[in-house]
Design goal:
Length: about 450
């Protein structure tokens, strides 16, 4: 199948050609004709599958043939959960629509509202927005919806996870009743199904990859490591494997900052993005990372949502996510389109249950790897069970320990060859899970 078979207009096909897309991805093959037919669409697709183009291309085609947009009006609205995703979707709209004379803009919170109001003054064909800022703009009469013909909810699951359901409800109440609705979500929880019931009218349902599965193009494995040794293992891996562009996930903002400090102290260029960083800093950090000026980008889940970095080779879970679905979103940053990627998790003893939940969700047992060269403060590699080799019994020398009678030096040594606390803990947990996992499958 080729893009031209969809009947998309020449300026759009030209833009796709300039992006060197040779053929549509599976989600594009299904969603583009469905959107062009005018029907509502409900699509389960992970990031990295080409889902942005799957709604943007037909949207541009439809809008190019319609009425001129009036001042302060919009003709299509794309709602996204985060500023980063909003910016990326807006970039895709601009890229695919560069040979058309449609106007597009992006609005999100955390920055001044006035420049956004100015841009809306002349009317905008496609507006990409985060929910809160859109409502602020509506309250200031800066945006009007009576010309709106299409609504896209991108990463709807994450919008609900982030607590945007009230805002979404308010926005839906403001939109014209007659419109086309397109909903994209990585997962389909009960909350999403509830949302779709009131929103979508007899939608075309599209599911391109197995629900809650990890992308096949990402090679995944884990290292088991003591919590306090994770930073050292990470810098060791970066150096030893000569990784040049690595996206690292931490669970907390503080954890992200600490890790950046550690990497910098090891002369590895790194920068953090999270909710406490200004929008300007986040944008700069991302563009430096994309341009290979910074080797490591450390991010929290929310900040990294929707990040699209072409050909990103490595994603590291410095901490495992609390929500197993986030594992899929995280490693979905790599292995995009036709590229191969690597998703690596550093797992400490306290994260064994989280790992088990992830493996149950993705229905896959992740390979346990050993990093043989990494032995900081350890006499044995971290992941290998210390099987005490039978030693020739030494003649016990008698030593006098004050007040304790006599001890043998042999006894003292033997205490050191006990298996480490946490040694091989991942495998120990696997056996537990294999009985537990036989029960019901999550979602
Ligand atoms: P998305 O899933 O929308 O985040 O897209 C992931 C990546 O795939 C982006 O970098 C797109 O530029 C790229 N992409 C989208 N469609 C295609 C295609 N048909 N062929 C090759 N790459 C694509």
């Amino acid at each position: 199948m080729s893009f031209s078979s969809f009947g998309l207009s020449e300026p759009i096909l030209r833009a796709i050609g300039e992006e060197n897309y040779s053929s549509p991805t599976p989600i594009q093959s299904k969603a583009i004709p469905a959107v062009l037919s005018g029907r509502d669409v409900m699509a389960a697709a992970q990031t990295g599958t080409g889902k942005t183009a799957s709604f943007t291309l037909p949207l541009l085609h439809q809008l190019a043939n319609g009425d001129k947009v009036k001042s302060n009006h919009i003709r299509a609205l794309i709602l996204t959960p985060t500023r980063e995703l909003a910016v990326q979707v807006a970039e895709s709209v601009a890229t695919y629509g560069k040979h058309l004379s449609l106007k597009s803009s992006v609005v999100y919170g955390g920055v001044k509202i006035n420049p956004q109001m100015m841009k809306l003054r002349g009317g905008v064909d496609i507006l990409v927005a985060t929910p809160g800022r859109l409502l602020d703009l509506f309250d200031r009469n800066a945006v009007k919806f009576s010309q709106l013909q299409t609504l896209v909810l991108d990463e709807a699951d994450r919008m609900l996870d982030m607590g945007f359901s009230d805002e979404i409800g308010k926005i839906l109440a403001l939109l014209p009743k007659k419109r086309q609705n397109l909903l994209f979500s990585a997962t389909f929880s009960d909350a999403i199904r509830k949302l779709t019931t009131g929103l979508l009218n007899n939608p075309v349902k599209i599911e391109v990859s197995q629900r809650n599965s990890a992308p096949k193009s990402v090679k995944q494995w884990v290292y088991e490591v003591d919590k306090g040794k994770k930073s050292a293992l990470l810098s060791h891996l970066i150096r030893n494997k000569d990784w040049s562009q690595v996206l690292v996930f931490t669970r907390t903002k503080n954890g992200a900052d600490q890790l950046v400090r550690h990497l910098k102290s090891e002369n590895i260029s790194a920068v953090a993005i999270h909710g406490d960083k200004s929008q300007g800093l986040r944008t700069r950090a991302l563009s430096d990372f994309k341009a290979n000026k910074t080797r490591i980008l450390v991010a929290t889940d929310i900040a990294a949502r929707g990040l699209d970095i072409n050909e990103l080779p490595h994603v590291i879970n410095f901490d495992l996510p609390k929500v197993p679905e986030d594992y899929i979103h995280r490693i979905g940053r790599t292995g995009r389109a036709s590229f191969q990627g690597e998703g690596i998790s550093l797992v400490s003893a306290d994260e064994v249950k989280l790992l088990a939940a992830i493996e149950t969700l993705i229905r896959q047992t992740l390979v346990r790897e050993t990093e043989t060269g990494f032995i900081p403060n350890h006499k044995v590699p971290l992941t290998r069970q210390t099987k005490a080799r039978p030693k020739k019994p030494k003649k016990p020398k008698l030593v006098q320990a004050r007040g304790e009678g006599c001890k043998t030096t042999g006894e003292q040594k033997n205490t050191g060859s006990k298996p480490r606390r946490g040694g091989n803990f991942l495998d120990a947990d696997k056996s537990k899970r294999s009985t537990r996992g036989k029960g019901k499958q999550r979602r």
